[in-house]
Design brief:
By secondary structure, the protein is α/β, with parallel strands linked by helices. It has one domain (about 10-225): Glycerol-3-phosphate (1)-acyltransferase (3-Layer(aba) Sandwich). The protein has helices at about 15-30, 55-65, 80-90, 95-110, 130-140, 200-225; strands at about 30-35, 45-50, 70-75, 90-95, 110-115, 145-150, 170-175. Strands 1-7-6-2-5-3-4 form a seven-stranded mixed β-sheet, with helices on both faces. Mean pLDDT is about 80; it is low at about 1-5 and about 185-195.
């Protein structure tokens, strides 16, 4: 590992275990092709935003991201044995005030937060964003890296109806890092801004619009790069 890559402090042990599980499962069941992972900053907090067309998108990113990821996951998923399991691998339940505190704590530790900005599974085209992403980016002073996962929603040749075709290629494309509150490229480590921006309604509205534009640019670019 390079000196630059070694700058990021280890994440919580749970998220690290989740990453190892993700690597084992995703690479044994499918053929992930990862493009642009070097764009994820090597130090400071960062938010990975992922399109959401299939239930395997989150685990796929957990297994292919260069660092352990703490995902915000809908609270309905935390039922039965999944509840202690998800908690044990560092995943966060979306429960308004609790989720806010937990997500900001992840960012203030300098760790990686994963968010489905559309809020729920759909077309996976970043067409509609929830306001929470802008809030975390502004309050957590964290750059955003857009991630497109392509190939999980293809239906042909499935051995198991609920899963992408086994051993098929799935593309994970990381886009350029950016900040939600200005036009500065976010490749520099987080915390480069002189002062922390206040999360006023006007700031959050402008940040949401900027994020929407950047995510919407990334998806067609990812499709061009992968031929999907």
């Amino acid at each position: 590992m390079s000196t630059a890559a070694a700058q990021r402090a280890p994440s919580g042990p749970g998220a690290a275990v989740g990453r190892r599980i993700g690597i084992g499962l995703m690479y044994s069941l499918w053929h992930p092709r990862v493009l642009g992972a070097w764009r994820v900053p090597t130090s400071g907090p960062v938010i990975l935003t992922i399109n959401h067309a299939h239930g395997v998108d989150g685990p796929m990113l957990m297994g292919t991201a260069p660092w352990p990821v703490h995902f915000l996951i809908k609270k309905e998923a935390f039922v039965g044995p999944l509840d202690p399991f998800l908690r044990s691998i560092g995943q966060l339940k979306v429960d308004r005030e609790i989720a806010d505190r937990a997500a900001l704590a992840v960012l203030r530790r300098g760790d990686v937060l994963g968010i489905f900005p559309e809020g729920t599974r759909g077309e996976g085209d970043f067409a509609a964003l929830r306001a929470g992403l802008a809030y975390f980016a502004v309050r957590g002073d964290a750059p955003i890296v857009p991630v497109a996962v392509l190939g999980t929603s293809e239906r042909r040749g499935r051995a198991i109806a609920a899963l992408p075709p086994l051993r098929s290629r799935i593309d994970i494309v990381f886009g350029p890092a950016f900040r939600a509150t200005d036009d500065t490229d976010g490749d520099a480590p987080s915390g480069a801004s002189a002062t922390r921006t206040r999360a006023t309604r006007a700031v959050l509205d402008a940040a949401t619009a900027r994020i929407q534009a950047r995510l919407s640019e990334h998806l067609p670019d990812a499709r061009r790069r992968t031929g999907r």
